[in-house]
Amino acid sequence: MIPAFYTLAVTVLMRAAPQTGFVEGTVVDAASGAPLATATVTVRYDRNPAGSGRLTSQNTAGNVTTTSVDGRFRLEAVAGIPFHFAVKREGYTSIGEAFGREGPNTYTLQPAKEISGVVVRLDPEASLSGRVFDPELNKPVAGLTVQAMMKTRSDGSVYFAGMQQAKTGEDGSYRISALPPGEYRLYFSSNLTPKVVASPKATPGRVFDYPSVFFPGVSEGRSALTVNLLPGASLGSLDMRLTRQRLYTIRGEVRMDGPPAEIAVWSITPFTDDGEAHRRIGTLPGPGTFEIQNQPPGQLRLTAVTPSQEPAGRRLAMFETTVDRDIKNVQLQLMAGMQATFAVASFGVRDGARDPLWTDLKAVCTVELVPRARTRTGNEPSAQTGPDGRGVFENVFVEPILLSVRGIPDGWVLRQLLYNGQAVEPHRVEMNAAAPAHHFLILLAPAPNLVQGEVREGSKPAGQALVLAVREPFAKDNMYHRAKRATADGAGHFSLRTMQPGDWRFIAVAAADSWQRAFEILLSGGGVRQEVTESGTVRLTLETVQ
């Protein structure tokens, strides 16, 4: 006779076992439709089937199988957990390797049920190749890194992300394989990268290297030639002619008051429309002499900063220059942050008068300063408003910052920002190093306005269409701070309330999952422009865009 506690244990284990189902499908060549044998197919769950916890590539991977000679596969998966397939095969680009997010084709099984007829299409690998030559030295360039950067869309932005890369051989040739179809730029990077060393001894000699450029030899990504790579295509003769450039050294001294601390040194370059490259070039053990080696010519901003957890508080020094020669005697004085004050008040209410924000609404706002010209190094200054709307920032560095306000009462907007009495743009505040004090006056105002309208797709209302609005003017790096969105109802009607007065651009797309495409169109200047006043109703009719 089986003891009762064994029976209970078996029953609990049986109840705890996850319910499963099966999925059957075929892996085929996307171009020809021919079945692909020996492809590896893995179930990749979109959330951890074991429950909560941090997602990893291990705990979201399920059963694995290999396709048969006719390209077919059959896999068991946990029921009720969305999943997609990660598929690999030699000669084809892999798909679905990302974990913790839904793939392009997501499935959910019911217990003891089966899904059949799934077709997974793999694109044949494509490749890019060419040769790099130095006409001045009349010889090929070996050892350069060549990276294929693919046009990518994410979070409403379009950018080129690094994919595969290769090194040039002794004959200067390179070949980058295993590329999915798409639009590409080629980036050629130099062998030597800037680095900082402490207490330099010897006098530096002349160093030469090849500049980092985009094909066909331009320094900025926006001027690069874009290559359209079709499935299975092999594009060759992407040749480059590069001439060496002189690299320079920057020598100087880091000074700081108080006990010595480790100092991180960052290089921020270049300053182009493509953005700024923030690169940590090394760490110094403490104050003293330093040398930055292998620095290419051009504009440069250096940031030296101590860790935020130092007892004396974080210290910062910044230095900006144009590098066109070796530079000596740079002095980086690490200074402690200072105090800045702020006040949040109602627009139009005189100082000292009764302010409804604090007397009636009893609002609580959090104001944060975020650096724009350096890498964030920890908790940046933020503070809550007191009962009178005032507050103090500690450890503020005089630099370009972005000011943001959280907790603005419903129905109110940020109407104006004053820095030391001068009106400034909230997303681009240039703090003045010569100012004896730093004070931010943040003015909020009620905005009882309303934008109403309908979205149409041809002659029919576009139910469930997505409407996006962005404030003019805006830049790519702050557009999300100034965007509003709404979803049309089944009859295509939408409304947006409490909008900051001024010019806005509106756009509608037929499906909510097309919002990235909508942002791309807005960035390119598309959409319907409309002024929104502080109060009143604006009515719009929008046509969906593709």
Give a brief outline of the structure.
Helix content is 5%, strand content 50%. The protein has 546 residues and is mainly β.
Structural features, described:
With 546 residues, this protein is mainly beta. It has four domains: 4-122, Sandwich (Immunoglobulin-like), CATH 2.60.40.2190; 126-245, Sandwich (Immunoglobulin-like), CATH 2.60.40; 338-446, Immunoglobulin-like (Sandwich), CATH 2.60.40; 449-543, Immunoglobulins (Immunoglobulin-like). Strands 13, 14, 19, 20, 21, 22, 23, 24 and 25 form a nine-stranded mixed beta sheet that branches. Strands 7, 8, 11, 17 and 18 form a five-stranded mixed beta sheet that branches. Strands 9, 10, 12, 15 and 16 form a five-stranded antiparallel beta sheet that branches. A hairpin with a 2-residue loop joins β20 and β21. The radius of gyration is 29 Å and the shape is globular. The chain starts with a helix and ends with a strand. The model is unreliable at 5-15, 99-103 and 476-480 (pLDDT under 50).
Estimated radius of gyration? 29 Å
Low-confidence stretches: 5-15, 99-103, 476-480
The CATH class of the largest domain turns out to be Mainly Beta
How far is the first residue's CA from the last residue's CA? 71 Å
The count of DSSP E runs of length 2 or more, i.e. the number of strands, is 42
How helix-rich are the residues, as a percent range?
under 10%
Q: CATH superfamily assignment of the largest domain?
A: Carboxypeptidase-like, regulatory domain
